[in-house]
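User: Can you model how NDP sits in this protein?
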Amino acid sequence: MSNNAYDKQVQEFMARIKAKNPGEDEFHQAVHEVAESLIPYIEENPQYKEAKILERIAEPERVILFRIPWVDDKGEVQVNKGYRIEMNSAIGPYKGGLRFHPTVNLGILKFLAFEQVFKNSLTTLPMGGGKGGSDFDPKGKSDNEVMRFCQSFMTELFRHIGPNTDVPAGDIGVGGREIGFLFGQYKRLRNEFTGVLTGKGREWGGSLIRPEATGYGATYFAEEMLKTRGESIKGKTVAISGSGNVAQFATEKVTEMGGKVVTLSDSSGFIYDKDGIDEEKLAYVMHLKNVKRGRIREYADKYGVEYHEGKRPWGIKCDVAMPNATQNEINEEDAKTLIKNGCYVVSEGANMPSTPEAVEVYLESKILYGPGKAANAGGVAVSGLEMSQNSLRFSWTREEVDEKLQRIMKDIHAQCEKFGKEEDFINYVKGANVGGFVKVADAMLAQGIV
Ligand code: NDP
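Assistant: Here's the modeled complex, given as structure tokens:
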């Protein structure tokens, strides 16, 4: 079949997806990218076509929408929306994070849940895909307000989740503090201590390296990509966006491996530290963001470096870019600027941080581009290891978990290479999409029309 015939099939498939899921732009974007890789593969493997696997995989098994009423510190009643998308359970219980951010809506969570299905499959661990969250904004809220909100959220969610059914974790706006409040309420409602959430504290069922896993994993993935050219992260200049969980631990690992991180950002702007963000400066960022809950601008005041209000860091000269903040944070123009300035590695800690046009620029330039569903799978992989440890009532050492994480990132890279190898470069987009698809699709075939 010709490329034009594939394009036509993708367009027809996407027209049906858009008609069925109106207004869900991010979901359309995520499905489109996957359909472009999969439709040619499915044509060559007609068993998937006959069983309508692609149509089924793009439809959530279940979507739960609920009201979250809570009372703020002034005694005023507040109401938020709560969601859980249970996307696919062919290879294991639903698994994926919770996002608390004012922009959260159904389309964003469906895109994240859809991506999660492929990502979880790539980890080689038995986890289905899910995602959830709320339009609640934790910024500026007191600890007590966050706790009351989390308790109300879990008062509905608890009836839909369980260690063998659906195991949520953190994402934007949901870190250790929120997971603690959510777990406490689940335990109280169910009267059982069980591994229903991952990202738990060390003393109450959490895994070592879980907080670090996404940022570390995205760095290991960059290293694997560099290895294909006989290179390493050592001595490379790295531009990172975000300053939350993923950005912090990517900074830590890049620095440890001998690279130099020169930027960090938040939704207000970015800092540019030419000398590199070393261990001591990173400790300052961690305190600023995780304890004081301040803005990245304060870093510039403290260390006397440049701060660019309202801007993203993609104009800064670097070898490696790690977008670690949010979706669609690199557009076509940014991608061109990065490449013009010498960047030739993009490892995505965030989910879908590059627009389709930016991805096109990477693929045309044949740079080392690791899409989020492969590069940031380290987080959910260690969540999977946390589930195993909870089931075993046992915990592995830091070294053991880190060693497993490194092996998983290598395996993910190998799958991308196997399914994405083209004449003169590795197409990691195709590799991750096809590699993630096969296991889920075969399980769906085996389980019948369900
Ligand atoms: P955090 O909430 O810890 O940090 C998010 C960071 O991104 C903050 O610096 C935040 O700035 C910034 N940010 C958020 N929204 C925007 C926006 N609209 N524009 C610009 N900056 C923004 O989240 P995580 O670090 O956990 O998540 C970051 C990304 O990584 C997300 O895409 C998430 O889905 C993905 N991811 C996370 C995993 C995990 O294990 N945590 C696993 C896999 C992927 P501000 O404080 O100003 O909002």
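A couple of observations from the model: The radius of gyration is 21 Å. Residues 170-173, 175, 214, 242-247, 266-268, 324-326, 349-351, 376, 379 surround NDP (CB under 6 Å).
User: Helpful, thanks.
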